[in-house]
């Protein structure tokens, strides 16, 4: 795709730069500079791959499709298969678990629940460690190896930790993980332990862990692989490419994603924008982000934007008021101060999407509906279907529109939640100091186990009652 001309560098890493996203700063830095924010203004960084189309769209699509059948390990990865688009060279020390290659499912029951004629769900929970984080982590840990780091670290609500631990394990790097004590699911913690990470439980919340990580990033032996890491966004953007291949290059009207630290929405927005800029797609899907009501700083900001000033995403607000004590059972998006909020907001505004929030009850019921489709997901993922239902009701999504929701984590990431919902015992602590009663979440689509006598007739009678 990027053939040689006299003027242009042939290696991706000679061409790509790290760029500050604040247009009034515009600082650019080499790929080998180990920085996580702009050294000049502390702004967020992104990678500008300076992509140039060298082949027509049909030739590029054909090449990617051919690689899907190749036995080359790089081609078996759903990320490295698109390596022309990434800030790495052909001979980079790729660290891969054959991430990506995730299915896209029809979800008729969930569609009906939302008021849609049809709905597809792309399940990033089918990645090697059970979450969407793997598509980004393969790129971040590869970059850690390129830079010669000894230890990869992150602060995480769980999924990132599991992914970092696995990829660091593959690369034989030490990994360390900072977690808020007692706030993550046992299943996710178990993964990090099994992959050999040093797990540091911190007395504090996720935002405290983030602050510590930023301080640790000054140490030259350490590579920070948090959401703020722009190389992770590069890996994750390939989800947009894969989604388009699976859609026969027909651009969906809407793509809907959960919003926590906002890396996912940022990455999808970047991926679609690059396809558009290269002429591989003719329009952008409307990208919408759904947050949990108790952890929705960006949805609050979005609701109060001046539409005249914000259209197109060229003039972004300087600050976003964080949520001091985020509250939601969807622990993967329980984040009060998302680091990538500006990049995500820009992507949503450019595509004319929305950022809204949904309640705990709406998340829980949508999750059960995704389960009924035989798909299943972790609680945070279900914000997509809960959000679509609201966006259809509000007229932003029309019933006949083509819609793809991105599910971010596997149903087994949080089995306690599932069990409590179906037994009718799910609840959220109030968080208030006066000891207010927990908020009970009703199991509207409850499916508790039943006691049945040990004989065939009793089982058949029970089946008949449920038909
Ligand atoms: Zn800057």
Write a concise synopsis of the structure shown.
The protein is 37% helix and 13% strand. With 467 residues, the chain is of the alpha/beta class.
List the helices and strands and how they pair.
Layout lengths: L11 H4 L1 E4 L7 E2 L15 E4 L8 H11 L5 H4 L27 E3 L1 H7 L5 E4 L9 H15 L3 E5 L3 H13 L2 E7 L5 H9 L3 E5 L3 H11 L5 E3 L5 H7 L1 H9 L7 E5 L4 H15 L8 E7 L4 H7 L3 H4 L30 H11 L3 E4 L1 H13 L10 H11 L9 E5 L7 H9 L3 E2 L10 E2 L15 H11 L1
Parallel strand pairs: 5-13, 6-7, 6-9, 7-8, 10-11, 10-13, 11-12
Antiparallel strand pairs: 1-2, 1-3, 4-5, 14-15
Helix pairs in contact: 4-16, 5-6, 5-9, 6-7, 9-11, 10-11, 11-14, 15-16
Fold and architecture overview:
It is a single chain. The chain is an alpha/beta fold. The protein is built from 18 helices and 15 strands. The chain has helices at residues 12-15, 57-67, 73-76, 108-114, 133-147, 159-171, 186-194, 206-216, 230-236, 238-246, 263-277, 297-303, 307-310, 341-351, 360-372, 383-393, 415-423, 456-466; strands spanning 17-20, 28-29, 45-48, 104-106, 120-123, 151-155, 174-180, 198-202, 222-224, 254-258, 286-292, 355-358, 403-407, 427-428, 439-440. Strands 4-5-13-10-11-12 form a six-stranded mixed sheet, with helices on both faces. Helix 4 (108-114) packs across helix 16 and helix 5 packs across helix 6. 49% of the residues are buried. Residues 1-6 have low confidence and may be disordered. It binds zinc ion (ZN). Zinc ion binds next to loops. Zinc ion (ZN) is lined by residues 20, 22, 25, 27, 38, 40-41, 43.
